[in-house]
Design goal:
Helix content: under 10%
Radius of gyration: 17 Å
Largest sheet: 4 strands, antiparallel
Distance between the termini: 21 Å
Structural class: mainly beta
Number of helices: 0
Low-confidence stretches: none
Length: 220
């Protein structure tokens, strides 16, 4: 299964394609191997695709709300049909900050909780952002602050999350860039399973590593 986004002539939508093990499109999935899913009130962009333990497929990214972008997640059954038991007929859109909210990386926590990580605009610059959903697509109020975690890596810096992993103990580690001055720096934050920063890591759960120029992490 390959996830991303597809242009429909006007704007973009979430897109999925499934291939057989030999390479051709799997015609039993969606429509001739394709699934195109509009999200929100305009363009939608998917940056992350994962499979749940039961085979259902999750796509995460951002969707236009008419003014700016919000976090967006869609869940599909194994045949590519939207899962009506998740969110609003298979879709969940969540506003985070005061402007564009960009979902970048999806992970499963504790087997069934769904975490979408990315970044959110605070009115001046961007901060790392996480949202956790229950298995039925409801924002999990037991995580962070009513289901949302926003982390300012350093005062005045622009923080762009790039990747996220869940540890065996269900803690979460994210990486991205924190821009201070003229250059981007490697940035890491570590969270406890409930979304609180892990104070045993770095300085208050955060670490920023300057180099001699632009440093941009891409994966974990």
């Amino acid at each position: 299964v390959v996830g991303g986004f597809a242009y429909n002539g006007t704007d973009s939508s979430f897109g999925l394609m499934r291939f057989t093990k030999d390479g051709p499109l799997d015609n039993t999935f969606g429509t001739n191997g394709w699934v195109i899913t509009p999200m929100g009130n305009g363009s939608a962009v998917s940056y992350s695709t994962i499979r749940q333990p039961d085979g259902k497929i999750l796509e995460g990214g951002m969707a236009w709300n008419g003014s700016n972008f919000d976090f967006a997640v869609a869940r599909f059954l194994t045949n590519g049909v939207l899962d009506s038991s998740f969110g609003n007929n298979g879709k969940v859109i969540t506003a985070i900050g005061n402007g564009n909210d960009v979902g970048v990386s999806l992970c499963m926590q504790d087997g069934w909780s769904i975490v979408l990580g990315g970044y959110a605009y605070n009115g001046t610059n961007n901060d790392f952002a996480l949202v956790r959903y229950t298995t039925n697509g409801v924002v999990d109020s037991s995580f962070g602050n009513n289901g949302i975690v926003i982390t300012d890596m350093a005062t005045g810096n622009d923080d762009i999350l790039a990747a996220m992993i869940v540890r065996p103990d269900s803690g979460i580690i994210v990486t991205g860039t924190s821009t201070g001055g003229l250059n981007n720096h490697f940035a890491l934050a570590k969270y406890l399973p409930n979304g609180q920063l892990d104070n045993s890591f770095g300085s208050g759960g955060k670490t920023i590593t300057p180099g001699t120029g632009d440093d941009v992490p891409g994966a974990m």
